[in-house]
Fold each of these.
Amino acid sequence: MRLGRISLTAFTWLVAILFVFPLIWMVLTAFKQEADAYTDPPRLFFTPTLDQFAGVFERGFLPYLANSGFVTVVSTLAVLVLGIPAAYALSLAPVKGTKNALGFFLSTKMLPIVAAIIPLYVISQNVQLLDNVWALIILYTAMNLPLAVWMMRSFFLEVPKEMIEAARVDGATLPTLLSRIVLPVVAPGIAATALICVIFSWTEFFYAINLTAARAGTVPVFLSGFITSEGLYWAQLSAAALLASLPVMIVGWIAQNHLVRGLSMGAVK
Amino acid sequence: MTTTAAAPPSASETAQRPQGRKGGSPWKRRAPLLPALLFVIAVTQIPFLVTVFYSFQSWNLVRPGSQHFVGFQNYIDVFADSQFRGAMLNTVVLTVVCVFVSMLLGLGLALLLDRKFTGRGVVRTLIITPFLILPAAGALLWKTTMFDPVYGLLNFVFGGETDWLSEFPLASVMTQVIWQWTPFMTLLILAGLQAQSKEVLEAAQVDGAGRGRTFLYITLPQLSRYLQLAALLGAIYIVNSFDAIYLMTQGGPGTASTNLPFYIYQRAFEGFDVGQSSAMGVIVVVLTLIVATFALRLMFRTFDVSGGVK
């Protein structure tokens, strides 16, 4: 019995390590010299170096990183500013049409984004927002808002009704009600929602690749530059991939207990 | 469908009545919702309406002044286009296979994680990580270090000189997508496993049901809502797959791994054919709406009972 448990645990570990092996390999490759990165057979032991990370920055990584950071932070803040009152309206003070509004938000997640890319391109061009971070900020806000509203709504529904009723009877206005009663209770939920928006904005590729270029490009756009570069730069690519993913990895590890709830739009705790 | 949204209003509308009588019109109470609603409508619906408009135009971006009304000609051309049908088939295959396989793998991993053991937190963190690296990074990583015919790890492990991306393009892309999405399925199914009632499981054991029977007759039925939700959400995201195809195969060789998002992208940004790519976009939306109508119904049912909404 005991032996069975130990071997099952060992098996679980083995499966997990096999599953993430491509990632482990990416981390190892990031610390190799290019010559060690592609050898036949693959090289497991080598002298680690930070050259590739330096190379990534020499290649002009910083502006892309700054764009990603700016787009992610501003769009996430915009989602919260627009989404918190909406989630409140849909959970704690619902009116006629609540269900329709929720359904509408959900339906926008089901629309294939390709169907809108052509007009978005033409519109961006006409209003001079092509290759401009603000185009991405607007789109990412709209992309994350429905998800955030659904997710925050599920947190808001956990606020004790008695607290809100008592405050209403005392004549609290909406801003007071939100800031004094509701927000302190749902703060962890809002933080989790924000982290999920951060993950989605940081990793978004389709809009970024089609609507930006060198000036407003984000980190995924920088990475895609590696497929057009001549020759093999596996070690540098691995270093870039690691650097580009690290912020989201850290955010995701912090938010892992809330990931499912966010991705399932609050359907599952 | 009704209980979800109807229950909370009935509870709090009573609370609101005093305020409402004092002159708070329904519109005042809707006010907090409006900015978000209007913003999403503007950013998501207007471009779609413009897409519909463009779909009736013949317009090529590289020929200025070429824009004119052509009625349904674009739609006729799209349906006659065998590449479009191929891309549609690829999209269906990619979505169905990836959702199904990543759910199966996710179920397996979730079952392994659903017990106490040394380092469980670490293992869970490891398993979710493929979901957290940039999809673009994941795609390039698989293209280079895994699938490369000479230096790739796959050929090192399995032997041979297979050029995975040109011999099995769609399967290679799917492998990466499945790898990326299995963590999400694992987490969702794990949440389902941990939500099942312990009493029922214990009762089954007392009654002498074996592990297999307990899983089949107790765990699986209890999990079904979580599995439905996983399939639905996985499908919503995977149907839009673009990163992996763009970065790993460019839809090729030929059109072997072209899906609808990539094909529309190609027609729009490499062929500059606004009219036809718009028509394709509209067709994709109509098809999605048909599927989504069923999906939405399912979603509301799932929300009703899964306890997400109290």
Amino acid sequence: MTTPTPENEVLPVGSEDDVVRVRQAVRRHAITLGFSLVDQTKLVTAASELARNVLIHGLGGQVRLEPLPVPISGARPGLRPGLRMVFEDQGPGIPDLDRALQDGFTTGNGLGLGLSGSRRLMNEFSVESRPGETRITVVKWKA
Amino acid sequence: MERIPILKLGDCLIISLQIDLHDRLALAMQDDLANMVVKTGARGVLIDISGLDMVDSFIGRILGNVATLCRVLDAETVIVGMQPAVAITLVELGVTWDNVRTALNVERGMAFLRLHLDASQAMQTAPEENHDDADAGE
């Protein structure tokens, strides 16, 4: 017996308005999963950073939001609800990942905190990038 | 295109961000505010962000820019009403606002601007020996 798994959601990222829609969808999922207000804000902020990267550096792409199954309490102790967010684009890729993950490094017109900052806001953070395919996967677990 | 209204109150401008800002709108706000400061000769600018449930690094940069921009135009800026969750996230994100004045709410923000404007006015009219006194309030 398990709690019904909330639906995954895929959203396009092709415009600034899409970035706003991604923020709203992430907020909705975070509320449904019972995240605290601070963690909701961290999730939404990280989503905004990463979705903007998809738009600006990846020339558009998509975001997949995957609410992680909520186990019955006690059945699998240690497992908590969480939200996984996968940002994908077919852009040129991140040539120097180590540098891209440094605070203050930017090729765009931001503060250079998009990748490094959102990594701090999440519990898990992984990047796969090559020319034509970049995928950033992040997870935040409910506290 | 949608615009964020800017209110004039004496020698101050007041702007309240109440909707989810997309990047274009944030940039338009920066331009409009700079133009309004020049047009009205405003000496103080208060930006209320109590309606924002998120400030990411882009919006953070715009707000920082606005404060620097206004200072260059001889107007003092204060950002008020930041929600606690936004403040916590902003710090963890790594946004540092070196030149941005903040106040807890509109009331305290206006009080700061009044104090600052009175002090700078006193400095302009006061005799030489009083300059240090006027600065001490900073």
